[in-house]
Design goal:
The complex is a heterodimer of chains A (371) and B (1034). Chain A is 22% helix and 31% strand. Chain A has 10 helices and 20 strands. In chain A, the strands form 3 sheets. In chain A, strands 10, 11, 12, 13, 14, 15, 16, 17, 18, 19 and 20 form an 11-stranded mixed sheet that branches. The chains are: A alpha/beta (371), B alpha/beta (1034).
Chain lengths: 371, 1034
């Protein structure tokens, strides 16, 4: 069955429908990792987005329970050069395309994804949709227009749990604001003995600090951090009261809490090969990335020129931009100097991607245990 | 930390001649390294014995030594040049072993030379099996379990830990004799018992079998700040058990989950840290059982390798270039990614296409080799293809191989299915045939142990399924980053894509300048080696210098021509008419050059012309005129030139009759030649009759070619330039072996020692006449035979770049291919200042390097069919010294003393007796079999007569195997399987003893040994040899 992808600027790519039928709309973004497709589509940070995989063959090793990053598929749709449905792979519990279909996720294959990605790279991530081949383009265009833009969008509320979830452990007690936390983060924390509480994103500072947790964790998540003023206020309420750590959206929220702004990147960082430099140690990690927004430095700078940590005063004492993306020199980490707090923009938990930065979890838990 | 300022002069070692397992990839890596080091402002001293390399072009180093890669000769270079540092990681195992030897013998310490890019202890930890095992286990990782056993009782004790099946490898036996796979206990016991008996030291290594597991390789780089990046993952389609060089491989890996892949990545990083490779590239191989997640580390190369060349071409990440920068102090983040120019090298490439590499085998050249693949590499080259899907890349790679012989499948399906159980060079064709005949994917997976994902993909290809109907050829770029950033370096491939509303979505942005398309040489194979790549690279350089865009088309990942730096646009494509026409359609070039890539582009010439594509240089009709025997013969008569009589016949009787008019001895061959065996020299009607009987039987069909064989003639090779009105002789070479040995296998010397001024003038005049008459624009190579004192015969003329162009260019100090290209672009020879000395002051010898040690079943005899894989060059003030250097460079260590074994045909006996006398005078012991011994004794020379193989023990083969023979001189008496000569040559090769099969070669060796004993020849750089002339012409 034929299908097509239509972008808001009118560009159309034809292909074949290979999972659930459309139509579906969302922000069209691309991911450059060569494996880890199932982890990606189940990552809540992809809420509201249609993922274009740059690697042309997707589905080679099937799907399995261990690759789930949440309990559901969060990506709206999937665009591929060649979708592979193989349930007989050694670790597979099902075929990728069959599974997408079962989950009701539209997908299109046979698309010249490289041409599509070059277009998005040059024009920026934009709205679009996957439509059945027989749907008139005007109708499809209307649906794309109806899709709200990612800019200014609060999606955390869509992926946060309704009730607090407690995952017991005998190590440090951590209270997390669950804006769509990935299973890999939970796994990394729990492997280190953490007693983890996952709070809805509407949690108040008082509720978070109740019972004096050893730390507050700010999770990854979808959407525009600038639209999450309510959570930023919560974060401001806990900084200085408890150590604060965070990943991805959590990093953006802490940055906003100490007074920085965020902006929408041209096409975002989504992949498993970005070099990030720790400005304190000079060490470079190859990192897993998934974010469409980034932090603006204290002087309004979108990129950092030198290799020295950038320091400035905040309401919470001295803060420091601690990590740098060597691809485009955007901000990748924050450390608070006078109160305990540190966040990174990238994904040390991997899932998918390299494990280079997993030591951050050891460092984090080590700090709590030493305190 | 930036560039080191405490070192100024760096010695770089090449890898020497092209041999199986060590090919053009080290010219690519070495040339990159030299370029980078010069750019960084260092003085570069290069040693490499292989003249057909780009790295030995004089502009790639400050001082270039074409000298043997042996410790004494490199030590002499060190003593003369006094480099501050030695970079040994870019010249393969050869360079690394040399560095180790020079470190162990104290040379490096004595001259204060620092090893950079690798550390002595790290090299040992990676290369020494035991140390590597300890290092890997120390890092908490697993290697295959194994035990060394010396008795059946020990073997029983080892069994429970190893499990079955188990691999049994007897110690110190040749070619794995006596080893095998024990699948059950009975078989295990039996093979161990046989192995213990076969091993001269009664020792057997028993090893956990990982046969059938998936095989994966990771290419890594590490800098001095301990940052590690994985450049590329490579998955072998053939499971464990086949050498990775002989496996079909794919990049990136296809079948592992992200979780499994990241585990491999973590382990690779642990290994490179534990081994302690501080800066540079490494390759680590793993076996993975995908069902159980078990991983074992198989081995590591602590240097750039064939796989790293493949990884560089597959991703656009130039490993060798970056390794060279890391070695002189840079960190990865301080080096730019050439391709994006906006991002640093401290990243991991991600690709949005699929790369498939196919090995190129040449079993048909080695009758007797069994064609099975195992853990020792046997392929002679490789082709790489890039496609948007695995199926596209696999099919492109298959057609890139340019097979001479298509595999044939047995009619019986059961037989076919049995055949695919054993890995062979044609297994994929066979399994595709099995699928076409209805074998299920499951059946094929079970028989081959190939991962079902690959079988599903290959099966779809075999069944002709086409989910991409309506897709069109679309040119995409290789950019290291899956289009995340804009690429600056234009490196393209074609894939099949659904077109957009305005047609295919090509990425090629052609500028305004006219372009010239250069067709490369395709995969290396015997007869078509690195020499042609060298010529293509020179063509690209020349086209660029002329102000046009050089466009390269090639599919060989090992080469300099497929470096994205070499041309303005590189199309990594198969060299078939359709693929080339695709590129031409994209480029609309001023012209296409077919003259430099050997047979590959020539085969396409006619089709290109018919498609209306303009060719530059010699017109295609001239090429065909030279190849068509009758027309060429007529042309020779017209010019008053002689050629050996020849005839063709269609039947046995016809051949016998025709032979009378041709005259004996004659060279006879069938219309297609499958290895040298079908080609023979016949001395009489009886001999010819017997040949025809053996090869055709009574009712054979097909054309028989009969050529008069000029016995004891001297063969002459000439490379010349022609612009249509002027001819310039590049070089006149004399073959060391007589006519009858393929020119590619014969040693040759420049200047031609035996030609007097008159004959030289005749050769030059004939060359001039032929080149002009053929209308050559560019290069021509002509082979002559000089018979008797003054008879000159033309054997053949090839109006194109020949195999000897790089050798001659380096011998005379003029880059012939570049000059030829300038002529093809319209310059006149008269306008180019060429000063080519007819008799250079120094003597250059080219020697062929043969791969017989890789094919234990094949005969090592030289004949009319080419068998060598590569060549070396020796340069010295006189012939014996140059010959000695060439021999040393070719790996034949000519002995300074000991015993010479001589066994020759009757016709050679007088000469052999003379030669034995000369050896005897030099203090050698002489051993000979019956007839030869008698002839030698008659000269009054002391000789020990020893038994032939058939005469009982102790015989010659036993003496060779006991290490009592230092040199073998054995001219053929017919090449029957398992004949005496065959066994003698096999034993000599197996024990690394030089084995000379022609009398002229033997005489040259004797003179070289005398020269060696009289003192070591000096090392001399190309810049010293040609300094003044080079300054004048460039």
């Amino acid at each position: 069955m034929s299908a097509y992808l239509l972008l808001e600027d009118g560009l159309r790519f034809d292909g074949d429908a290979c999972a659930a039928g459309g139509p579906v709309t969302g922000e069209v973004v691309f991911n450059t990792a060569m494996a880890g497709y199932q982890e990606s589509v189940t990552d809540p940070s992809y809420r509201g987005q249609i993922i274009v995989f740059t690697y042309p063959l997707v589905g080679n090793y099937g799907v399995s329970g261990e690759a789930m990053e949440s309990d559901a598929v969060h990506a709206r749709g999937v665009v591929m050069r060649e979708g592979v449905d193989r349930e007989d792979a050694p670790k597979a519990e099902g075929g990728w395309l069959t599974w997408l279909d079962d989950c009701g996720i539209p997908a299109i294959s046979g698309v010249d994804t490289r041409a599509l990605v070059r277009h998005i790279r040059d024009r920026g991530a934009m709205r679009g949709g996957i439509f059945p081949g027989d749907m008139p383009e005007a109708e499809a265009r209307a649906l794309v227009e109806a899709e709200p833009p990612m800019h200014g969008r609060d999606l955390a509320r869509e992926v946060t749990p309704a009730e607090t979830v407690v995952l017991p452990g005998d190590g440090p007690r951590i209270a997390a604001i669950d804006t769509g936390i990935k299973h890999s983060i939970i796994r990394q924390l729990r492997e280190r003995g953490v007693h983890l509480e996952l709070h809805p994103c509407t949690v108040t500072p008082e509720e978070l600090l109740e019972g004096s947790p050893d730390a507050v964790f700010l999770a990854n998540g979808p959407g525009d951090p600038a639209a999450l003023g309510h959570i930023v206020e919560t974060v401001r309420g806990v900084v200085g009261e408890a150590p604060v750590f965070g990943i991805c959206l959590g990093h953006q929220l802490l940055c906003r809490a100490v007074g920085l702004e965020t902006y929408k990147l041209q096409f975002g960082h989504r992949g498993a090969n970005h070099p990030v430099k720790d400005l304190a140690t000079g060490k470079i990690d190859i990192t897993s990335q998934n974010h469409g927004f980034a932090v603006i430095g204290p002087g309004g700078e979108r990129t950092i020129e030198g290799d020295e940590p950038v320091r400035w005063d905040t309401d919470f004492g001295v803060a420091e931009l601690s990590h740098l993306n060597l691809y485009d020199r955007t901000v990748e980490g924050l450390v608070l100097r006078d109160v305990p707090g540190a966040t990174v923009q990238y994904h040390p938990e991997a899932g998918p991607g390299p494990h280079d930065a997993r030591y951050l979890f050891d460092r984090f838990i080590g700090l709590l245990e030493a305190a | 930390m930036p560039r080191r300022d405490d070192i100024h002069k760096i010695l770089v070692l090449g890898s020497g001649p092209i041999v199986i397992g060590q090919a053009a990839e080290f010219d690519y890596s070495g040339a990159q390294a030299c370029k980078v080091l010069l750019e960084e402002g260092y003085e570069v001293v290069l040693v490499n014995s292989n003249p057909a390399t780009i790295m030995t072009d004089p502009e790639f180093a400050t001082s270039t030594y074409i000298e043997p890669l042996t410790p004494p000769s490199v030590a002499a270079v060190i003593e003369k040049e006094r480099p501050d540092a030695l970079l040994p990681t870019l010249g393969g195992g050869t360079a690394l072993n040399l560095a180790r030897a020079l470190s162990e013998d104290g040379t490096l310490d004595r001259f204060g030379v620092e090893l950079i890019g690798a550390d002595y202890d790290a090299i040992r930890r990676a290369e020494d099996r035991d140390l590597f095992r300890q290092t890997v286990e120390g890092a908490g990782l697993r290697v295959p379990r194994s035990a060394i056993v010396t008795s059946m009782a020990e073997a029983e004790r080892a069994l429970p830990e190893l499990g079955l099946p188990a691999i049994i490898r007897p110690g110190f036996t040749m070619g794995g004799q006596g080893g095998g796979v024990g699948r059950d206990e009975a078989e295990y016991r039996q093979i161990v018992a046989e192995g213990l008996a076969a091993s001269p030291i009664g020792q057997v290594l028993v090893e956990e079998s990982v046969i059938g597991w998936g095989e994966f390789e990771l290419e890594l780089m590490r800098d001095r700040n301990d940052n590690v990046v994985i450049v590329c993952s490579i998955e072998n389609v053939d499971p464990m058990g086949v050498h990775t060089g002989d496996s079909v491989t794919v990049a990136p890996q296809q079948t592992l989950t992200d979780h499994q892949y990241q585990e491999l990545r973590d382990q690779a990083i642990k290994v490179i840290r534990a081994v302690g490779v501080e800066t540079g590239g490494s390759n680590i191989q793993f076996a993975v059982n995908p069902a159980t997640d078990e991983i074992v580390v198989i081995e590591m190369n602590p240097r750039v390798s064939r796989s790293s060349a493949l990884a560089s071409k597959a991703t656009g990440f130039p490993i060798a270039k970056i390794a060279a920068r890391l070695a002189v102090g840079y960190a990865l983040e301080e080096i730019d990614n050439d391709i994006t120019r906006a991002t640093p090298a401290s990243f991991e490439p991600t690709i949005d296409y699929v790369v498939v590499k196919w090995p190129r085998f040449a079993f048909e050249k080695f009758p007797g080799a069994d064609g099975r693949l195992h853990t020792a590499m046997q392929s002679v080259g490789e082709a790489m293809a890039i496609g948007r899907t695995f199926k596209q890349a696999f099919a492109k790679a298959m057609r890139s191989r340019e097979l001479d012989v298509n595999p044939t499948a047995p009619d019986d399906l059961d037989e076919l299915l049995r055949r695919i159980e054993t890995p062979t060079g044609d297994r994929f064709e066979l399994l595709m045939e099995a699928i076409r005949r209805g074998a299920s994917d499951d059946e094929v997976c079970r028989r081959t142990m190939i991962d079902p994902w690959f079988i599903a993909e290959i099966g779809a290809l075999a069944r002709g399924e086409d989910p991409e109907a309506g897709f069109v050829r679309t040119y995409k770029a290789v950019d290291t980053c899956a289009a995340e950033f804009e690429a600056a370096t234009p490196y393209f491939y074609s894939g099949w894509e659904r077109p957009g509303p305005d047609g295919p979505r090509h990425e090629v942005r052609r500028g305004e300048r006219p372009s010239v398309v250069i067709l490369g040489a395709g995969p290396n194979r015997i007869g078509q080696g690195i020499e042609f790549d060298y010529c293509c690279v020179h063509a690209a350089m020349t086209v660029r210098e002329s102000g046009r865009d050089a466009v390269m088309v090639n599919c060989n990942p090992e080469t300099v021509s497929t470096d994205y730096d070499t041309s303005d646009r590189l199309y990594f494509e198969p060299l078939t008419l359709e693929d080339v026409l695709g590129v031409v359609g994209m480029e609309d070039p001023e012209g296409v050059i077919v003259q430099f890539g050997g047979q590959t582009p020539l085969r396409l010439a006619r089709g290109l012309v018919e498609a209306g594509v303009p060719l530059l240089g010699t017109p295609v009709d001239s090429i065909h005129l030279a190849e068509d025997r009758p027309s060429f013969q007529a042309l020779l008569s017209e010019l008053g030139l002689k050629s050996p009589a020849y005839a063709t016949a269609e039947s046995r009787d016809g051949a016998l009759d025709a032979a009378e008019s041709v005259g004996y001895p004659l060279l006879v061959r069938p219309s297609y030649v499958l290895g040298g065996r079908a080609m023979e020299i016949c001395y009489s009607r009886e001999g010819l009759g017997s040949y025809l009987e053996r090869t055709r039987g009574q009712n054979g069909t097909g054309t028989i070619y009969l050529d008069r064989f000029l016995e004891n003639a001297i063969e002459i090779d000439v490379d010349a330039l022609c612009d249509g009105s002027d001819v310039v002789i590049g070089g006149v070479m004399q073959h060391v072996e007589e006519a009858g040995v393929h020119s590619g296998d014969s040693a040759c010397v420049l200047p031609a020692m035996s030609l007097g001024p008159d004959m030289m003038a005749q050769v030059e005049e004939a060359t001039r006449a032929l080149a002009l008459r053929l209308g050559v624009i560019g290069l021509i190579n002509i082979q002559f035979a000089v018979h008797g004192d003054d008879e000159l015969y033309v054997i053949e003329a090839n109006p194109r770049a020949s195999r000897t162009v790089p050798f001659v260019s380096k011998a005379v100090g003029v880059p012939l291919a570049k000059v030829a290209c300038r002529v093809m672009l319209g310059e006149r020879l008269a306008e180019i200042d060429l000063d080519i000395p007819r008799y250079p002051r120094h003597v250059s010898v080219k020697e062929a390097v043969l791969p017989f040690d890789r094919f234990p079943g094949a005969d090592s005899l030289l004949g009319p069919e080419m068998k060598s894989t590569g060549e070396v060059m020796g340069i010295a003030g006189d012939y014996p010294a140059a010959f000695g250097k060439a021999q040393a460079a070719a790996g034949a260590r000519l002995p300074a003393g000991g015993a010479v074994f001589v066994s020759v045909t009757d016709t050679d006996k007088p000469a052999a007796a003379q030669l034995a006398a000369a050896f005897h005078d030099m203090g050698f012991e002489i051993l000979a079999t019956g007839g030869t011994a008698q002839a030698i004794k008659r000269m009054g020379v002391g000789v020990e007569r020893i038994n032939k193989l058939t005469e009982g023990s102790p015989n010659v083969v036993e003496r060779i195997e006991a290490g009592e023979v230092a040199l073998v001189i054995n001219t053929p008496t017919g090449s029957g399987a398992r004949a005496d000569g065959w066994e003698i040559r096999r034993a000599a090769i197996a024990h690394g003893i030089p084995c000379i099969t022609t009398m002229t070669g033997a005489t040259a060796a004797q003179r070289a040994i005398r020269a060696l004993r009289e003192g070591r020849p000096e090392v001399i750089s190309l810049q010293e040899l040609h300094g003044e002339r080079r300054a004048a012409t460039t």
